[in-house]
Every structure is written in structure tokens, then in C-alpha cells.
Amino acid sequence: MSVLEPLGDGVWRAGCFARGPFDGVHGGIVTTAMMAEMEKAAPEGLRPLAVRTDFLRPTPLGSVLEVKVQPVRVGRRTALFDARLEVDGVVTARCTMTFAGETGIATLEADYASDPAPPDRDPQGLPRRNVGVSHGESWLLDVLDPRLAEDGGVWFRWTIPVVPMASAFLTAIAPADTLHGMARPGLPGPAPVAGYPNTDLAIHFTREPRGEWIGVRPVTRWQKTGIGIGFGDLVDLDGTFGHAAMGVVLLPF
């Protein structure tokens, strides 16, 4: 059992746990399907560096998802791919992904990061995050085991695979796409708006995530004009491995 079932030749089926907080496929799962196909197309020796998805319209649950990948540039050190996700011939999302090859840097004595590492604590002992949704159906966070840390960060781990034989990079996409909702106004109660969909998702990876726990350090900024953003670091128990950001459109009651 997995959240996304591969049917072959770029075709996927999203199960009930692929649902977002609305009645459609979660944006992190939409991105995961496209990213999985681009990982297959990338040259050996190159790993994900950056991915950006634009959500053009809701992706309906219960439909067959078809991903089409096109190389834009494939070089010796970097490669760029485009992908489109279609449902019944209609494009619901598009994605661009950059891959890069690693090489030793002799003049850098050690890995460097200007920000501190997260506290060394087992997230298993943290309280579960309140993630109730209005539709009352099975959805993505039912299989992500969210845990709330004292510093406002949220830790996740998959209780079922997101896709069979998922790469470590793929396991981080859906947690990253929760950032705009994990520090929103109104918590732990309902949001003060009818909805807050993100229009896009951009992720940069410093390195491959390690271990089963993926953490986010969410920052949310909502304006009374109805526009917002969400962003934050992506962390594991060894430190920060990436950063994510998205634009947010606030929906009035």
C-alpha cells in the first residue's frame, strides 16, 4: 500500500490518503508524482537540487494522473527537466526540476551552515499535532504522524510509503507542502478564512534528507489584502537539509 500507486509509463493513481485539506489531491502528492518521473529521467550521478511546482487547478481524487516529462537541458554537471500532470487531458500542474552532480571541494574544510542545527531529540516523544480538517475524510496527514515541537516546528514520518521504493528526496515533498498551514493564524482552532490554498511550491535541497523523520520550521505571513506566503527550513535529526516556500491566496467567507 502506498499513497501514490504507479501504473507504469508515467501514469499514477492517487489513493484516499492523497487527499489534501480540501476535496482534491494534496499539492505535495501532485509534486511527488511529477518529481518521481523526473528522477527516473535524470542522468545517473545527478541528484535533486531544486524543484518548483505551479498548481494550475485542483487535481481531482479518484482520477488517473498522467505525467509527461521533457528534458530542457542536460549537461555534465547540471540538468533541467519540465513536467506536466494531466487528468483526462487537462493540465492541472506543471513542475520544473534542477539536478546537480556532486564533486569534492578541497578548499572547503567541512560542511558549512550559518544556522544552528535543530535540537537533538527523538520526535517520537513529542505530542501529536492537531491536524483536523473540515471534510472529515481520510487525508494525507493521517499517514504522516505529525508531532509538534516546543519551538513551533513540526516533525513528520510516513506510516505507509508515499510511493513504492521512494527516494529520500521524495519523502520530503509532502511535509514541505504543509508549511503554510503549520503556523497559520487561529491555531489550534479553525482558520479565520474560508481557505488558504498555496499557488506554488518551491524547494531547494542542500543534501539528501536522512532518517525517517522530516521536520519543518514554518513561517507564515498573511496580509489583510488576501495575499500571503509560507516558508521555512526542512530539517532532519542531523540538521537542515533544505528550504521551501510558497505563495498563498486567502479565501474570504
Jot down its keywords.
253 residues, mainly beta, Porin, 4 helices, 12 strands, 37% strand, globular
CATH architecture: Beta Barrel
Strand content of the residues, in percent?
35-45%
Overall mean confidence score, pLDDT: 94
- Per CATH, what is the topology? Porin
Helical amount = 10-25%
Number of domains: 1
Distance separating the two termini: 37 Å
Structure classification: mainly beta
What is the CA-based Rg, rounded? 18 Å
Instruction: Name the helix and strand elements from N-terminus to C-terminus, one letter apiece.
Output: EEHEEEEEEHHHEEEE
- The CATH superfamily bears the name Acyl-CoA thioesterase, double hotdog domain
Report the CATH C-level class. Answer: Mainly Beta
- The largest sheet has its strands arranged as 1-2-4-5-6-3-9-12-11-10-8-7
Number of strands: 12
Q: Low-confidence parts lasting 5 or more residues at pLDDT below 50?
A: none
Q: Count up the helices.
A: 4
Shape, per Cα inertia axes: globular
What characterizes the major β-sheet? 12 strands, antiparallel
Question: If you had to describe this structure to a student in words, what would you say it looks like?
Answer:
- This protein has 253 residues and is mainly β.
- It has one domain: Porin.
- Helices cover 11% and strands 37% of the residues.
- The chain has four helices and twelve strands.
- It has a twelve-stranded antiparallel β-sheet with strand order 1-2-4-5-6-3-9-12-11-10-8-7.
- Strand 11 (227-236) and strand 12 (239-249) form a beta hairpin.
- The N and C termini lie far apart (37 Å).
- The model has no long low-confidence stretch (mean pLDDT 94).
